[in-house]
Write a structure and sequence with these properties.
heterodimer; A: 115 residues; mainly beta; 0% helix; 54% strand; B: 110 residues; six-stranded mixed sheet; globular
Chain lengths: 115, 110
Amino acid sequence: NAGVTQTPKFQVLKTGQSMTLQCAQDMNHEYMSWYRQDPGMGLRLIHYSVGAGITDQGEVPNGYNVSRSTTEDFPLRLLSAAPSQTSVYFCASSVLGTGRTGELFFGEGSRLTVL
Amino acid sequence: GQQVMQIPQYQHVQEGEDFTTYCNSSTTLSNIQWYKQRPGGHPVFLIQLVKSGEVKKQKRLTFQFGEAKKNSSLHITATQTTDVGTYFCAGPGGAQKLVFGQGTRLTINP
């Protein structure tokens, strides 16, 4: 199994450009999420989804859009990139437990630099 | 929203010394998870604790969940160079949200 696959692994953008980070999982997980990781800040939740057609905001959603048209895919869109969005982005998925998420499986990350 | 605070932020030890990281919440947690991230890698799930006062062991790693379910700890006995990385706790931050602590970065002098 490939698990959680993120593309691209590295990306450099100019301020104001838009782009999409792709995330796909082959484990039939209902739950998918996006985190960003900055030094000293840990992992902060951007958006998450509990199934196709259902998305919700996390701790730091501003400047990002998501959609979930299929169980497998959960792309993250940066609408107008800003230097503050320079970060490492992780996609993660899990099965849904009763009222809680299960073990998160993470992708290898996408390192984004905004100039 | 729910926050989990993790201390210390950094810990440097000599190989063979013990290491402990602590996770605290102002509210009761229904469960807590622990992850390890190697340098340059992605977080990898270690364990989930659910019961009050629960203690679980994985070889040299001991995980505890407090009686009040507001704190948790990860203790590594006799550290090895393979233990290097950042350890995160994560707890529920509302409906289907998993919120991470800031992490404890462990470095080891061989």
